[in-house]
Structures are given as structure tokens and as C-alpha cells.
């Protein structure tokens, strides 16, 4: 079933502490909001309406920078007003199903979404619900008194609805009514809402201690991704070459649109490959005159910035230069230090090696040189 989604992120989130609203705080290297946004888009939300406070536009655009298919809307004084705003931002001809989700519940999955959509076949709405497992007490004059937990459930988000039915319920809701969830709005006006199995991982980030548990879960949803890069350039008459960002005197130069730094080109491709962002030519076309003679460090910094924007972190890099001349060993330490500077990595995470092809091939004939590079990147699995 096609669906649209509304991600509610207009609260102040001050109970979570640290001043910054919880939807913008970092979780596993990404803003909290980015976890749900990515999961909903990957599950098929089209479009995703992200409802934010006025003034949070820059934060939202940064959190959503590597995603497409989203639009922003501005929230109101309470949750009901924010959902109304999200519904108004949906186009009239959009999907019949709509999901409403709290940005402060970051661990939603495609499986959660599908179970909710399946349940709409026989109901106006569907919600994930968890049976209350803990003992319950009420506080009276004589202290705590046991209360029955039979039939009690914790209701979570996302919640799914037939859009027209939800819109009709909100249209009938008095403007000053503040409901705690959308299922309550639907039920208030006779809609039938069913429950699907909830998930303890759909807990809501509310207090500072919730972030400790979320950080532990986020740590288990990361993986190391590896990219491989290769580049080659031929020699031409000259007096220097650039390798790993270091200028080396030589009796020939390398042909290239930029500074022809074969090592940085291979390394840039390795990083881009690790994060699924194409190759260096996609980002810096050789047909674009602005990159003529450019320092290849610009390309490498761009690739590293893309890693950070996706919530990732470079772990280590390994470069192998393939040539007969110039000799690499006298310059290897300077190359490592330059790469450490460009990538802001400790020196022990950077390897530069060199080898020859024993006189074979174009490198053996000293017609040019080549480089291979490997980059390992720690990335969130969301």
C-alpha cells in the first residue's frame, strides 16, 4: 500500500536536558530526527512531511541533507495543531494511507510500517501497542496501593490511518482540543482503530537516561563499510609531481585536469565508494573548467565531509603507489602527515606504501604511475 508520512518534530523537548531539543541531539552520529526520517523514506513514505518549530529550518535541512522526498511544515502550540499542519501540507491526490510518527522514537523499521499498513485493510486506523508488564500502583492517603494492569497497553507510534478518515476527524475536532495521540482523535469521532504488536525499541526519548539506552541501541546498528579506489595518470615533460598532497621534484610531470595527484584521486574514490556516492568524476567532472589545475585535496575533503554528513567516521585509509620513479620512501612520512592533516585522522590510521611492477606494464616502462586505495568507514545502519 502506498503511503505518506508525517514526522512530528515541533516540540521543545526540554525534559531530555542539555538545552538542545531532543530531535536535534546527536544519536549514533546523526540527529535523532534523521533516524526516523531515513527509516520512513526507505519504507516508502511519499512524501514525508517533517513538522518543525519556526526557526528550526536550518537544523532540519542539515539533518535531512542526504535524503530526498521530504517537505517541511511548521507546527503549532500542541501536537494536534502540528498534525493538522502536516495533513495540510499533503497534496490532495496523494496516497490514501498516512502514518503519523514522533521524531523522538528513532528506531522505527520497515517491518513496523508494513504491519500497520496491513492492519488498515479492516480498520480506519492501526497503532502499535505493548501490554503493560510492570506492576502498577496508585498513590493514596495511605501510600501506594496495587492497581490492576489487566487490559492496559502502552500505545506507540507510528500510527497509521486512512487519510480521509483521519482528516475528517481532525476537521471535527474543536480547535482548542489537545489530544495526546491521533488514535484518540479518530476514536473520539467513531473511527475503528486496531492494535498491532508493539515493540519495546519504539520507546520515546523523553528523559536524559533514555539517551543512554538509545546510544547503546544505536551502537549496535552501525557497520564498517569498505571502499576501493584506483587511478592512473601518464607522464609528460615536467619538473614535479603531486602525490598524497605533497609536491615532489621529478624529471617528469603527470597529465591530468587537476593537479593529477593519482594517490588522492584513488583515495577520494575509495571513500566515495564506501558510502555509495559514485566516483570523483560525478562530483568534479573533468569537463568543468573550474577544476583545471585544482589541488586534489579539495576533492578529498569533499568526500570526507560527505562521510560526516551521513553520520559516519573514517576509521583508516591505506594507499599503495605503483611506480618505478620517483622513489616514494623518502617522502612517505610527509605524505602520511599531509593525509592526516586533510582528513583530521591520527597518524597511525594512515598507511602509504609503494611498489613496482618489476619493469612490466605501463608503470614498468615508466610511461605513467598508478595508485590503489582502501578506506574503511564506520556508518550507521538506518
Counted by DSSP, the helix tally is: 12
Question: Would you tell me the structural class of the helices and strands?
Answer: alpha/beta
What's the CATH architecture of the largest domain? Alpha-Beta Complex
What integer is the average pLDDT?
Answer: 91
Total beta strands:
19
Global geometry: elongated
Largest sheet, strands/sense/barrel = 8 strands, mixed
- CA distance, first residue to last residue: 22 Å
CATH H-level superfamily title of the largest domain: Spore Coat Polysaccharide Biosynthesis Protein SpsA, Chain A
Number of domains: 2
Radius of gyration: 27 Å
Strand percentage, roughly? 25-35%
Q: How much helix is in the residues?
A: 25-40%
CATH topology of the largest domain: Spore Coat Polysaccharide Biosynthesis Protein SpsA, Chain A
CATH class of the largest domain: Alpha Beta
Low-confidence stretches: none
Task: Describe it.
30% of the residues lie in helices and 29% in strands. It is an alpha/beta fold and 382 residues long. It folds into two domains: 3-219, Spore Coat Polysaccharide Biosynthesis Protein SpsA, Chain A (Alpha-Beta Complex), CATH 3.90.550.10; 222-380, 2-Layer Sandwich (60s Ribosomal Protein L30, Chain: A). Strands 1, 4, 5, 6, 7, 10, 11 and 12 form an eight-stranded mixed sheet that branches. Strands 16-13-19-17-18 form a five-stranded mixed sheet. A two-stranded antiparallel sheet has the order 2-3. Helix 11 links the parallel strand 17 and strand 18 (350-355). The mean pLDDT is 91.
Amino acid at each position: 500500500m502506498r503511503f505518506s508520512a508525517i514526522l512530528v518534530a515541533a516540540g521543545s523537548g526540554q525534559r531530555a536536558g542539555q538545552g538542545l531539543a531532543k530531535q536535534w541531539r546527536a544519536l549514533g552520529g546523526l540527529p535523532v530526527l534523521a533516524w526516523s526520517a531515513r527509516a520512513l523514506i526507505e519504507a516508502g513514505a511519499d512524501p514525508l512531511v517533517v513538522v518543525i518549530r519556526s526557526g528550526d529550518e536550518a537544523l532540519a535541512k542539515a539533518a535531512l541533507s542526504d535524503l530526498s522526498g521530504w517537505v517541511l511544515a511548521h507546527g503549532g502550540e500542541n501536537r494536534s495543531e502540528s498534525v493538522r499542519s502536516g495533513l495540510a501540507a499533503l497534496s490532495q491526490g496523494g496516497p490514501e494511507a498516512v502514518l503519523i510518527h514522533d521524531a523522538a522514537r528513532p528506531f522505527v523499521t520497515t517491518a513496523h510500517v508494513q504491519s500497520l499498513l496491513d492492519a488498515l485493510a479492516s480498520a480506519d486506523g492501526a497503532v502499535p501497542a505493548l501490554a503493560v508488564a510492570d506492576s502498577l500502583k496508585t498513590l493514596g492517603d495511605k501510600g501506594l496501593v496495587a492497581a490492576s494492569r489487566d487490559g492496559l497497553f502502552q500505545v506507540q507510534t507510528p500510527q497509521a490511518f486512512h487519510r480521509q478518515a483521519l482528516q475528517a476527524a481532525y476537521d471535527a475536532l474543536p480547535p482548542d482540543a489537545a489530544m495526546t495521540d491521533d488514535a484518540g482523535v479518530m476514536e473520539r469521532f467513531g473511527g475503528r482503530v486496531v492494535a498491532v504488536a508493539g515493540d519495546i525499541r519504539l520507546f520515546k526519548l523523553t528523559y536524559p537516561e533514555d539517551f543512554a539506552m538509545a546510544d547503546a541501541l544505536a551502537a549496535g546498528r552501525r557497520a564498517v563499510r569498505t571502499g576501493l579506489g584506483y587511478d592512473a595518470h601518464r607522464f609528460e615533460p615536467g619538473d614535479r609531481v603531486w602525490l598524497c598532497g605533497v609536491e615532489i621534484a621529478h624529471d617528469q610531470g603527470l597529465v591530468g585536469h587537476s593537479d593529477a595527484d593519482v594517490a588522492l584521486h584513488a583515495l577520494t574514490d575509495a571513500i566515495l565508494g564506501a558510502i555509495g556516492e559514485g566516483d570523483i568524476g560525478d562530483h568534479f567532472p573533468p569537463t568543468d573548467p573550474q577544476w583545471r589545475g585544482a589541488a586534489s585535496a579539495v576533492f578529498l575533503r569533499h568526500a570526507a565531509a560527505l562521510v560526516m554528513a551521513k553520520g559516519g567516521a573514517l576509521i583508516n585509509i591505506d594507499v599503495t603507489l605503483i611506480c618505478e620513479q620517483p622513489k616514494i620512501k623518502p617522502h612517505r612520512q610527509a605524505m602520511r602527515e599531509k593525509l592526516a592533516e586533510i582528513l583530521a585522522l591520527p597518524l597511525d590510521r594512515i598507511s602509504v606504501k609503494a611498489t613496482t611492477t618489476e619493469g612490466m606494464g605501463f608503470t614498468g616502462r615508466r610511461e605513467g604511475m598508478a595508485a590503489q586505495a582502501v578506506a574503511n568507514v564506520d556508518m550507521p545502519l538506518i
